[in-house]
Structure formats: structure tokens, C-alpha cells
From TrEMBL:
Biased composition (Low complexity): 294-305
Origin species: Actinomadura alba
Top-level taxon of origin: Bacteria
Region (Disordered): 288-311
Name of protein: Vanadium-dependent haloperoxidase
Gene3D superfamilies xref list: 1.10.606.20
Native organism taxonomy: Bacteria, Bacillati, Actinomycetota, Actinomycetes, Streptosporangiales
Domain spans labelled Phosphatidic acid phosphatase type 2/haloperoxidase: 259-393
Amino acid sequence: MMIALSAVTAQAAAASEERPDVALEWYDTTAATITTAGSATQVTNSRTWAISWLAAARALRAVPAGVPRRDYEDAALAGAVHSALIALVPARTQELDTALRRTLARIPDGPAEDRGVATGADQARIVLASRDGDGLDPDSVNAPFPVPAPEPGVWQPTPPSFAPAAQAGNRNARPFLLERADQFRLDPPPALGSARYRADLSEVLAYGAADSTVRTPKQTETASFWLGSSFTLYTEPLRVALTRSPRSPADRAKLVALFHIALVDTQIATSDSKYAYLRWRPVTAIRSADNDGDPTTSPDPDWTPLHTTPAHPDYPSGHNTYSGAAEEVLTALAGHRTAPFHLTSSTAPGVTRTYTTWHALTQENIDARVWSGIHTRSADKAGVTLGRLVAEHTLRNAKLLFR
């Protein structure tokens, strides 16, 4: 009998070890949920990630006495993310319920499973209530913004669609950890006519033109690769960090939560600096060079960037605030380097790039926006600085989220 019981115990332990990684399972479920039925506004989707995984991290803070640790942790993580996503993306309720049943079917029935699911659901309700009315819904994010009067250096709608300003409402949203949207407001952009300003425009004029004769095929590929949403492009790097993390389940959930909390606050801070300075985009500057107060520049009314300019001011680059914050969080919580991983982009079909550092992603983003013709290098570098500052603040103050 003792031999038989030992065999059963060994089989149960082996089955537990072979159980799929629930953190990765629900990471992929979160990504699929948002890809399929998420919001049209990037920061709203970042908010969904942040709320769901903050609830999970809180649910994993402590394991009740007398229950199997892994059973409780798996149930708590699944219960938290499931409950939050049901509330935030109700169109995917059926798929999320199926995913939860699949996870729970692998966990033995009993107190660990029951208490884990209940704790996860409770934490989801608490976090959701704390973020109610935070101004990160699509209507608030894209609240109407009046076009400013035309002046040298001042943003105007850009060709070809001349669309109204987007994401201006982010600066009025409630951050997770920032004290206020302008807490890390950047210094002003280079003055019109300054040496830095002239160098910025000269670079974009030459390398960012649709018909550039100096931009190499590799540079064009880089511009196209990073043209897509940073939110989408960084989903895989974060998954790589989560997959390779040797940390506890609670710390792995914190990695995902803090990444997106930092990115929500970064997007709020980005909007603040963009709309505080209202710096015109390169296409406007180049076509209006006779109005910038610099007698050494001449207008080029037919100049066209390689890629269509997004509908918001130049300074700072939002792609680069995102990459700066992402690099800071990934470096702090997953290390500077990692084993090689591959990345693809929907805006560069057929291209696969390989990376071993998070910094390489940031550097490519800086270059890409110049080579696309849609940002100046000063706006790109300032964006990285702002993103890092906000992420550092998030990491320093993360304990406030777990009191």
C-alpha cells in the first residue's frame, strides 16, 4: 500500500510540474482579447492590461495557510485576469469563460482553487472601482481639440487628411502613480532657427522624404518595421521577458502590471508635453520654412514624408516615450540582456529581426521616426528621456500599489 501511495504521489507531482504556465496562458488570453475586441485607443488598451494584471499581482501577494501554493496561485491569477477582462471587454465573455474553465480543469477541486478564484475576483473588483472615471475611455482620450492659429513652429493638421488632433485628452486623465500629468514635463524643443533646429530639419528633409536618395534600403525597412503601434510591437518583447523570468508568480504578474502602468502614465505625460509645446511636424516645417524665422532655410512645398504623419504634435515622439519606458521597466525587472528573440511587424511583412537587448529596440525607434519623415531626432530623444523618467517613477513608487 505504501508503494502504491508513493507512486500516486509521484504521478501527482509530475502532473503538477507538467501543468502549463498559467501566467503565459493568461498573458496570451489578454493579448488575444484586446486584439480581437479591444479599444481603438492605445492608452485604453494599456489600461486594460494594467488593471487586469495589477489585480493578479495583488491576488498573489500571499498564499493562505494550508493550501497547495501552486494550485492557489494559478487559480488566483486566472480568476483576477478573467474577472477584470470580463468587465473591460464584455464582448469576449464567452471566450474568457472558456479559458477560465480550461485553467481550472487542471487544478484539483478544493479550497486552494475556490479561494484563489475568489481572491482574484475580489482584487479585480477593487482595482476596477479604483480606476472608475479615470478619463482613459476613448471619448475622453480623443476629446475635441481646437486647431491653434497658424504661427511659425505651431502645430497644424498635416497632409494628406489634415485630421484633427488626436490623444489630446490623455493629458487630463488620472494617472496610476504620477502626481500630475506635467510632473516630468520636458524642457522646450529647440528654438526655431537654432543650430539644433536646423540640423533636425536638414536630417528629416534628406532622410525622411518619400523620394529620398540618401536613405538606404535597410533604413527604409527600419522605418517601416517600427511604423506600427508600439503597444502591439512590444507585446512580444514583454512576453519574452515573462517567459524567461525565474521569479515568483507574484513578481511575474508585477512585471506585466508595472510595464503597462508605466506605459499608461507615460502616455499621459507624453500628451502633456505635446500639447504644452504644440511643436509643428516636420512636413509643416519643411513646407513652411520661409515662415520659421530662419533666413537660411527655404520652403519646399512639395516635400512629402515616407510615411503619413500622425495627427498630433511633434515633440516629443510618442513611439519613443513608449520605447523609453518599456526599456526602463524591462531592464529593471528582467535585466539588460536576454537570449536572442525574434520580432516581426505587421507594417513590414516578411521581415524578422533578432534582438538580445531591450536598448536595441529603443535605438531603432529613434532612427525609424526620422527615416519615416514624421519626427525630428530631438523629439525622438526627448521622448526616450520622458519615458524613462516616468518608468523610473513607477518602479520607485510601485509599493503604493500593493499596500
